[in-house]
Design brief:
Two copies of one chain form a homodimer.
Chain A: H1 15-30, H2 37-43, H3 51-54, H4 58-81, H5 87-103, H6 108-117, H7 123-149, H8 158-174, H9 183-195
Helix pairs in contact in A: 1-2, 1-4, 1-6, 4-5, 4-6, 4-7, 5-6, 5-7, 5-8, 5-9
Chain A binds a DNA duplex through helix 3.
Chain lengths: 201, 201
DNA sequence: CCTACCGATCGGTAGG
DNA sequence: CCTACCGATCGGTAGG
């Protein structure tokens, strides 16, 4: 909104951001290795050599996409974690925030690239991403601890957290925006699944 | 064991099977698109053109790997599903069988390729795989129904099945053979997670 | 950001 | 199953 750094106006579109968005969509769709620089250039109406004016290598594009993905998820879930309700309400808000990023149109390509293409990152960048992911997952470990303390779950071990991450992240494989299930519904059903309460209807 | 078809003897090694195994390992490790025919040929000590004596295209190699993966998982879990104990015992046996295929040395490369590289299949083969997967998942839907009827879970909907598949299949992302958790332990913990019972220790 | 290009590598094949 | 090869395509760059 305000002008920090050098803000992009309507007449001065941010071509770098365009490239990151297009790369995210293509990486999510076809995979990093199967996506060519020419695919990305065409998607943003450039010639095949031009993306290299904005990024030094294809790996740097992957890095930008993956870091944007993890930052978006992290920010959204931090906000939910600090929303200050009961442990159960906090947990549900976190599930919703994570799923919004994974499945919503704003972030799903970044998230899918993060989940499926991270193995193509350079080792140093992978270490960077792993560190961010560890911090992120510690947030979930904490809410599990609170849920156990409140008597809502039986086990708050690391394995429980990993099962939960699996149920969450696997939604990318089956969720369809046009389907019967909304994102909020899925979050509620997952909360019920983990907390072992019956739902109505 | 017996000689159906034309069995491979020690003097007549099955080079086709060697290629499928090597391709599975490389596809699991680097991804389908990033694996070259030359990688596969080198892994089985052939020249770069020779794999095409056994397979018409690289896609056919992917097909062989993926179908071997799904067949192995399907066979193992069918056996567990028919082991004839209580619903809980059957469920635990199925979890164990699925995880053995995903994480054990015999099948993990095929399974990882199935889980992560299926998008590179030709449309017809993808449809074939999807049909097999639907049949496979129906088996899980059935045991969930039995568990609900026995009062062990609250919800046996399709979404519950998908959460369970997520927890199961995500183990590929974090399980390490040399780690503290054994496969059998993980199966037990997942059963406890889903059935909501406390474990000892 | 475009033009024009380069060296490397890729999947696949003919002929034996 | 090897030898020798082909056309296509790839990531990336020099120069403007």
């Amino acid at each position: 909104m305000s002008t920090r750094k050098r803000s992009a106006t309507a007449d001065e579109p941010n071509r770098r951001a365009d490239i990151v968005r297009a790369a995210g969509r293509l990486f999510a769709e076809k995979g990093y290795a199967a996506t060519t620089i020419r695919d990305i250039a065409k998607a943003v109406d450039m010639q095949s050599g031009s993306p290299f004016y904005h990024f030094k290598t294809k790996h740097d594009m992957l890095r930008a996409v993956v870091l944007e993905g993890i930052a978006a998820i992290n920010d959204a879930v931090i906000k939910a974690a600090n929303s200050g309700g009961t442990p159960r309400a906090t947990f549900e808000a976190m599930l919703r925030a994570h799923l919004d990023q994974l499945l919503g149109s704003a972030g799903r390509d970044f998230a899918a690239t993060l989940l499926h293409e991270s193995r193509h990152l350079d080792p140093e960048v992978l270490a960077e991403v792993t560190a961010l992911k560890d911090r992120y997952e510690a947030m979930w470990q904490k809410v599990l601890k609170d849920l156990k303390r409140a008597g809502l779950i039986a086990d708050d071990s690391a394995v429980t957290r990993l099962f939960l991450m699996g149920a969450l992240n696997w939604t990318v494989q089956w969720y369809r925006p046009e389907g019967a299930q909304g994102i909020g519904q899925i979050a509620q059903q997952l909360a019920a699944f983990v907390l072992g309460k019956k739902r109505r209807g």
